[in-house]
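Action item from last meeting closed. Structure (554 res):
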C-alpha cells in the first residue's frame, strides 16, 4: 500500500522532521526531479543539496532507478549500494499525491544504522503524538498515537478533540514569528504532556505547523533545549542560555564566541557545576560545524576497560560478544562535527597516547582492526582538575596537554558571581516548575540573601538541586527559609575554609570538596549511589574521591 500523506510536492510539511534524523532522505516530484535532499544524504553522497535539487534523480551515481518502480507501481524496494566506498542500504517507495499520481522517496542508511521499514515509521512513535496543521490551521495529518489516545476514527473527530486543547494562540504566534515556540504543559486525562510548535516555512512564508506532544515524565530536557535540538541537531545550548552578566563570565563568553570561529582545540576548565558542558554546546552551535554531529563522552563515567571501544569502536570479531558487523566509535560518529571529552583529567596514560594520535594524525583505528579511518573532528575537552599539577606528577602527558592547551576557557565559580545569583535562581525556578509540573512562583528575599552569603562549592548545580528540594517541600507558591537546608542557612560548608584561610587555593578547594562529599554522604545515610546522584557525578568518581580524601563512610 502506498503512503498517502496528502502533500503538495512543493509544500512538504514534514521537511523539519526529516531534516533532523540520522538517515539520508531523498524525495522526488512526479517527474522524478529531486525536491528534497536532507543533510545526512549530503554526507552520504558528498554533494550539496543545492547541486542536486531540481535535477533528475537518476543523475545521482549510482542511480536510483525510480522510473521502473513507478511504472510498475512497485512498493518498498530494499537493496545495497556502494556509495563513495561505503556500503549503504537503500529503501525506495512511492508517495501517492493523488489517486494514480506517484512521486518517489528513498531512505539511505549506512549498514550499521538501525533498520527501518517505511518512511511512515519516521512519524510513528509509541510515545509521541505528532499532528500537522496547514496555514489555515486545518488538521492534515496525525500519527497513530493521537488516534489511539483520543479513541477517534476520523480526522474530524480528532480535530474536535485537539482544537479545545492545543492553544490556537500558540499556533498562530509560532507561525507569525516563523520560529519554534515553547508550548505549555497540558493535562490530558490525568497525564501531563508537553507541547512544542514547529512552523514550516517555504518561500519566506509559513505554510503549516507541526505540533509534538511528549509525555512529561519521559522528557528530561527544557523547552529551550528541545527546540534548539530541532533547529540545529544534537547540541542543545547557545551562549544566550548561559545566564548572568558577571564581568568574569562575560569575558569567557566573548572568548568562546571567538573560539567558535576557528577549528582549534578548546580546553574548558572550572570547578564541577560551573557550566563547562553548556559552553561546549554553545561553541559547537555557533561554529561552522553546527550542522555536524555533537558527540559527548564523559571519560570518568566509562570504565577504563570499555573506554577504548567506546571512543574508537571495534571491528567484527574483535572480542567475545562483539557485534558481528562491528561498531563505530564516538570519534567516527563525530566526523565532520565536534566531540566533547568531559573529565579528560581522569583519562589513563595509555588512552591519552591514543587520543594524542587522533589529534596529530586525524585518524582512528578500531579495536581489532588493521586499517585506520580518517576523521575530521574538532575536540573540546573539559576538566575540573589542575592539568599543570597532573603533568608535574606524571599523571597527564605533557605533549597531550600542549595539544589541548590551544584555546583555554576558565569558568568562574558561583561564589565569585554573587551578583548573578538572583537572576540565576529565578531562571532555575521557572525551568524546574516546567519540568516538575509545579507552580512555585517566588523566592523570598531572605532566601536570596542567604544564597548570596553561601559559598556554593557545588556551584550552579548545587543551587539547582537546592531549589528542586525546596520546591518539593514548598506547599505554597513562595520558597522561604524553612525550605532551605540548614547547612546553607548557617554557611557550614564555607565556615571551616574561611576560618582556616591559610594554604594554597588548590588546598582550600580540595578541603571544600571533601567537606561537601562528607555532608552529602551524611544526608543520605552513607548511600553512595544517592550521594553521587545528588553531586551529579558518576559513582566511580565518588569512590575515587572518597579514597583520595580518606573519608570513612558508614
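Sequence:
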Amino acid at each position: 500500500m502506498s503512503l498517502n500523506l496528502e502533500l503538495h510536492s512543493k509544500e512538504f510539511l514534514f521537511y523539519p522532521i526529516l531534516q533532523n534524523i540520522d538517515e539520508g532522505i531523498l524525495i522526488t516530484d512526479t517527474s522524478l526531479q529531486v525536491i528534497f535532499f536532507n543533510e545526512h544524504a549530503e554526507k552520504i553522497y558528498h554533494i550539496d543539496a543545492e547541486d542536486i535539487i531540481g535535477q533528475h534523480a537518476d543523475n545521482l551515481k549510482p542511480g536510483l532507478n525510480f522510473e521502473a518502480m513507478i511504472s510498475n507501481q512497485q512498493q518498498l524496494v530494499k537493496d545495497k549500494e556502494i556509495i563513495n566506498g561505503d556500503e549503504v542500504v537503500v529503501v525506495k517507495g512511492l508517495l501517492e499525491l493523488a489517486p494514480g499520481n506517484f512521486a518517489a522517496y528513498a531512505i539511505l542508511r549506512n549498514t550499521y544504522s538501525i533498520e527501518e521499514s517505511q518512511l511512515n515509521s519516521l512519524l510513528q512513535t509509541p510515545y509521541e503524538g505528532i499532528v500537522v496543521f496547514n496555514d489555515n490551521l486545518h488538521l492534515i495529518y496525525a500519527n497513530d498515537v493521537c488516534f489511539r489516545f483520543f479513541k477517534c476514527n476520523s480526522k474530524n473527530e480528532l480535530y474536535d478533540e485537539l482544537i479545545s486543547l492545543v492553544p490556537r494562540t500558540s499556533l498562530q504566534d509560532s507561525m507569525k514569528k516563523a520560529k519554534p515556540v515553547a508550548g505549555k504543559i497540558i493535562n490530558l486525562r490525568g497525564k501531563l504532556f508537553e507541547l512544542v510548535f514547529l512552523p514550516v516555512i517555504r518561500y519566506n512564508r509559513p505554510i503549516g505547523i507541526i505540533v509534538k506532544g511528549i509525555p512529561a515524565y519521559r522528557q528530561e530536557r527544557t523547552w529551550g533545549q528541545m527546540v534548539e535540538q530541532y533547529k540545529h541537531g544534537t547540541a542543545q545550548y547557545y551562549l544566550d542560555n548561559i545566564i548572568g552578566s558577571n564581568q568574569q563570565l562575560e569575558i569567557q563568553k566573548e572568548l568562546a564566541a571567538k573560539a567558535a570561529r576557528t577549528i582549534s582545540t578548546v580546553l574548558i576548565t572550572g570547578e564541577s557545576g560551573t557550566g563547562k558542558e553548556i559552553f561546549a554546546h554553545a561553541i559547537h552551535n555557533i561554529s561552522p560545524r553546527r550542522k555536524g554531529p555533537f558527540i559527548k563522552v564523559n571519560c570518568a563515567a566509562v570504565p577504563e576497560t570499555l573506554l577504548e571501544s567506546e571512543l574508537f569502536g571495534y571491528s567484527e570479531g574483535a572480542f567475545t560478544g562483539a557485534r558481528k558487523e562491528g561498531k563505530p566509535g564516538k570519534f567516527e560518529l563525530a566526523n565532520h562535527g565536534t566531540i566533547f571529552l568531559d573529565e579528560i583529567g581522569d583519562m589513563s596514560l595509555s588512552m591519552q597516547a591514543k587520543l594524542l594520535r587522533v589529534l596529530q594524525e586525524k585518524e582512528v583505528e578500531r579495536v581489532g582492526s588493521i586499517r585506520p579511518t580518517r576523521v575530521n573532528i574538532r575536540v573540546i575537552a573539559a576538566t575540573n582538575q589542575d592539568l599543570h599539577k597532573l603533568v608535574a606528577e606524571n599523571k597527564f602527558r605533557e605533549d597531550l596537554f600542549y595539544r589541548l592547551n590551544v584555546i583555554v576557557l576558565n569558568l568562574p565559580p558561583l561564589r565569585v558571581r554573587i551578583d548573578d545569583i538572583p537572576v540565576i535562581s529565578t531562571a532555575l525556578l521557572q525551568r524546574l516548575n516546567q519540568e516538575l509540573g509545579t507552580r512555585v512562583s517566588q523566592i523570598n528575599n531572605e532566601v536570596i540573601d542567604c544564597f548570596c552569603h553561601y559559598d556554593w562549592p557545588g556551584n550552579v548545580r548545587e543551587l539547582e538541586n537546592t531549589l528542586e528540594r525546596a520546591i518539593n517541600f514548598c506547599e505554597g507558591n513562595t520558597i522561604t527559609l524553612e525550605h532551605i537546608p540548614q547547612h546553607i542557612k548557617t554557611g557550614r560548608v564555607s565556615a571551616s575554609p574561611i576560618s582556616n584561610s591559610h594554604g594554597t587555593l588548590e588546598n582550600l578547594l580540595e578541603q571544600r570538596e571533601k567537606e561537601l562529599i562528607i555532608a552529602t554522604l551524611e544526608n543520605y545515610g552513607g548511600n553512595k549511589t544517592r550521594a553521587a546522584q545528588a553531586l551529579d557525578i558518576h559513582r566511580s568518581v565518588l569512590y575515587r574521591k572518597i579514597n583520595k580524601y580518606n573519608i570513612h563512610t558508614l
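Note appended to the action item: The chain has four domains: 15-116, 129-219, 239-410, 417-548.
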